[in-house]
Amino acid sequence: MAKCSCDFRFLLLAAAAAFIYIQMRLFATQSEYADRLAAAVESENHCTSQMRLLIDQISMQQGQIVALEEQRKHQNQECGQLRALVQDLERKVLEKKIDKVQVPVAAVVVMACSRADYLERTIKSILKYQSSVASKYPLFVSQDGSDQGVRSKALSYDQLTYMQHLDYEPVHTERPGELIAYYKIARHYKWALDQLFYKHNFSRVIILEDDMEIAPDFFDYFEAAATLLDSDKSIMAVSSWNDNGQKQFVHDPYTLYRSDFFPGLGWMLSKSTWNELSPKWPRAYWDDWLRLKENHKDRQFIRPEVCRTYNFGEHGSSLGQFFKKYLEPIKLNDVQVDWKSMDLSYLMEAEYVKHFADMIKNAKPVYGTDAILKASNINGDVRIQYKDQTDFEHIARQFGIFEEWKDGVPRAAYKGVVVFRYQTPRRVFLVGPESLQQLGIEHIKTK
């Protein structure tokens, strides 16, 4: 009995020990969970604090975005108001320069880029003769790019309207080694002419470059030619330039010609012609493009014998090509021709063919390799027949005139005939192999 009582006590002690151990383990586990719970609560509180901070930052940024959006809208409104103000000022300035009763003959635009000194010389030359006829010929300067010197120079003149063409689109040339300048020039021309014809709604525009001086009768000449341009649709443009206008090859400031070769360098075209050209304007080399038959469609250009513009631009995108030989010796007309009293009906297409043919028929033929010597010994006009382009270039080289052809047409030619003065006032006609037939000349002595 005593043994059983002892065993029971041991069992109770073991049970008590086990109970105490279990309680201690439970207490330790509860303490560990409590610590973990406290850490979790603390982490949650930290996350909540961080989230609130982020929410505050996002709210602040959203407020800033709203403020910036409002500022942008306000700036857009201000820009719109400034744009409208500039357009209104431009309109008012233009209205001051154009008499409401006087319909302008043509807008005059000087195409400029980065030559401020050249531009100043050109503007002074224009204003010398334009001031008295400003209502007939409102003056513009169109600058390509952002050269500050050119912009400041143009804006220093109250007598003109300034336009600026900013084009940041990259230029991709069609062939390696091409000058990017020719692509930029073509873009500028299209933009400026679109502005003048479509925004300002001029019926005609005279295009000059920033390296030109004009003759005293420049504006009277173009006013007289405007009537021809409007009445004869076979005339594509009127130019103030003669490629063979060097001093030794000209004589009569009253004489005008038709030409199949686009002269450029101071020229006038009509809005109806620009409507045709603008949609297909080339990416580069616009002047050569105009000389292609497919683009001028057998229409001609009016040009003078004695130039009404002088090109002094030795330095430019063309790198002074031909300047010393062909441009520097150009004769700028110094005679004040009364164009209003001149009868220019002989330049109309139907009349001109007969007029020009009569001049050739009355010229004495010269044959042989020593054409210059023979021509110098003949009194009066002479004509020299050439066989082909090579033959023409050989003869032209002897006289010193332009040898260049474009699309089968020699410079300054009409129906393949190039006319110039030689030992003035004698005229020399270089006649192409098909010229007489095109002019309707029959029974004329040929070699």
Automatic annotation (TrEMBL):
Domain of life: Eukaryota
Compartment(s): Golgi apparatus membrane
Molecular function as annotated in GO: alpha-1,3-mannosylglycoprotein 2-beta-N-acetylglucosaminyltransferase activity; manganese ion binding
Membrane topology: Single-pass type II membrane protein
InterPro entries in the cross-refs: Glyco_trans_13 (IPR004139), Glycosyltransferase_13 (IPR052261), Nucleotide-diphossugar_trans (IPR029044)
Catalysed conversion reaction: N(4)-(alpha-D-Man-(1->3)-[alpha-D-Man-(1->3)-[alpha-D-Man-(1->6)]-alpha-D-Man-(1->6)]-beta-D-Man-(1->4)-beta-D-GlcNAc-(1->4)-beta-D-GlcNAc)-L-asparaginyl-[protein] (N-glucan mannose isomer 5A1,2) + UDP-N-acetyl-alpha-D-glucosamine = N(4)-{beta-D-GlcNAc-(1->2)-alpha-D-Man-(1->3)-[alpha-D-Man-(1->3)-[alpha-D-Man-(1->6)]-alpha-D-Man-(1->6)]-beta-D-Man-(1->4)-beta-D-GlcNAc-(1->4)-beta-D-GlcNAc}-L-asparaginyl-[protein] + UDP + H(+)
Segments traversing the membrane: none
Cofactor: Mn(2+)
Key words of the record: Coiled coil, Glycosyltransferase, Golgi apparatus, Manganese, Membrane, Metal-binding, Signal-anchor, Transferase, Transmembrane, Transmembrane helix
GO cellular component: Golgi membrane
Coiled coil: 58-92
Enzyme's top EC category: transferase
Cofactor: record remark: The cofactor is mostly bound to the substrate.
Pfam families in the record: GNT-I (PF03071)
EC number, UniProt record: 2.4.1.101
Pathway(s) annotated for this protein in UniProt: Protein modification; protein glycosylation
Family according to the record: Belongs to the glycosyltransferase 13 family.
Function in brief: Initiates complex N-linked carbohydrate formation. Essential for the conversion of high-mannose to hybrid and complex N-glycans.
Protein name, as recorded: Alpha-1,3-mannosyl-glycoprotein 2-beta-N-acetylglucosaminyltransferase
Organism: Nyssa sinensis
Lineage: Eukaryota, Viridiplantae, Streptophyta, Embryophyta, Tracheophyta
